[in-house]
Every structure is written in C-alpha cells, then in structure tokens.
Amino acid sequence: MAVRHFTRVSDLTSEELTSLLELARATKAEPGRFEGALHGQSVACIFEKPSTRTRVSFAAAAARLGATPIALSPQELQVGRGESIADTARSLSGYVSAIVIRTFAQETVDELARHATVPVINALSDLHHPCQALADLLTIDEELGGLAGRKLAFLGDGGDNVAHSLLEAGALAGLDVTIGCSPLYEPDRDILAGARALARSTGAELTVVHDPGLAVAQADAVYADVWASMGEEAEHETRVAALAPFEVTAELMALAKPHAVFLHCLPAKRDEEVSAEVIDGPRSVVWHESANRLPTEEALLVLLTEARIPA
Known about the structure:
The protein is α/β, with parallel strands linked by helices. The chain has 13 helices and nine strands. It has helices at 14-29, 53-64, 85-93, 106-115, 130-144, 161-173, 189-199, 212-216, 236-243, 250-253, 276-279, 286-291, 293-305, and strands at 42-47, 68-72, 98-102, 120-124, 151-155, 176-180, 206-209, 221-224, 261-264. Strands 7-6-5-8-9 form a five-stranded parallel sheet. Strands 2-1-3-4 form a four-stranded parallel sheet, sandwiched between helices. The mean pLDDT is 96.
C-alpha cells in the first residue's frame, strides 16, 4: 500500500477527518488504552524553526504511544552540510516509523514526502499548519457541540498558514470559514480555490471579506494569529499598519454570537492581533486549544502508522 502522508489538511477525506477526530477523543478519554501502540518504535522530529507547543506535544504524543521521539535540528543532520532532502528522507525511513517536520518552505515538506517510505507529517510550513487545524476543530467541537453549520471567523493575515489550513479543515468538516483581512493580505488563490472545491461536498461556505465587523458577525468562534510570523519580522510595521483594524477586541467579539469563543494558535502578541481583555477573558479557549494538540497528534500518529491499538 502507498505510504500516507499529512502535508496539509486536504490530504485527508471528510470521512478520514471525522475518524481522526473520533480517535483523538478516544486517546484523550482513555490514554491508557493506547499505551504501547508504537512500542519499540521511533519518530524523527525535525525542527528548522523554534517551537514550544509543536515540539513538546509531538514528543509527548510519541511517548504516550510507546515510541521514542528523536528531536533533530538541521545542524544535527547532514542537510546542514548539503545532503539532499531526498537522501535524508530515504535514510531516516530506515530508522523511524514517521517523520515530523517543522520548516519554512512547503516544498521541503513535499520533497521529504516524495522520497520517504514512512509517513511524513507537516508540523508547520510557510503555507500550511495542518496539525494546528486538527486541534482547532476538536476544540470547537468540544466547546460548541458540533462543527457542521457553525461559523468560524479568522481575522488578520489571510495568507497565514493557519488561515490556509482552517479553510481546508472547514471545507472537510462542513464548518463555514470567513477570512477577515486586508486586501493586501488575502489567502493564496490556489489554496482558496481548492478548499472551495472540497466544500462542495459538505456545504461549507468559505468567504473572504475586508470588513472585520462583517467577518465576525454571528460567528460561533473567532480566531487570530500573529501578524508577522518567523521570517517576516522585517515587514512588521507594514503589516501592523494594514492589519490594525482586524485586532480582535471586546467590541469586535460583541458582534459574534453570545456563546462565541476565541481561539489563537499561540504565541500571541497581546494588544496587537488580540487585546489582552479578550485572550485572557472568559470567552478565550486558547489553553484548551493548546492542550488539544496532544490528543490530535497522538491520533494522527496512530492513523498514519496504522498502529495496532492494544485490546
């Protein structure tokens, strides 16, 4: 059988996404049931970017399944001396059961997946943050009691990797997603078009608007991310000027539904993309969301490696 990779959310079908979220609920409710599913195996975790949540959650997920996580930086691999991604993928495939990578270019993830003979998981790239989107879906489902027909509003940089993954996740889950952004920072056209094509089967509505109030109106969940990601620091002032109207404030949250929750993938810059009043307030579920990285990544490892779950 062909090796399954997770380079972006749309690598899954709607049915597989549903099954994965169900499995995540099970790993969360009965963690002991999955101990030993990857006993004696190893997971390579390549980090080209600094990480808190991704690094710790994947290490913990692997350990809970009985696998040994091996954290690697480019300086610890021969890629730092010019070895090709293809050769690295072939070599690592002989030692581990899965390869997790957090990198800059999506092309690096795709190249690794083309040559690896074990599952490759995109833990973040410049275009996609699919593991975060899985945790987001689980959190929204747990907080609101369902995904289909709900509305998620993402405010800020529409070309953000989180925004891209939320579009694909919403399309597969039947979750309406509205991107509220400056005309200067819209989603990638191809990613948006692909997500809309996927949404035809679920009925999810994926829209892009330039009015923050319109984006948030009647939303069940409101999402923000930093305006300048790693590698974009030189653009910080330009981005702040363009995206300032999209800061999630208490006034904007008041336009959402009364039960609406606030999400953020973290790390956050308080009083920039979100006010301290919102992220530290009663409608914020960011710590629940952060914790959900663990069960969703555990479920992802089980699904992709086809691990045997002990009876």
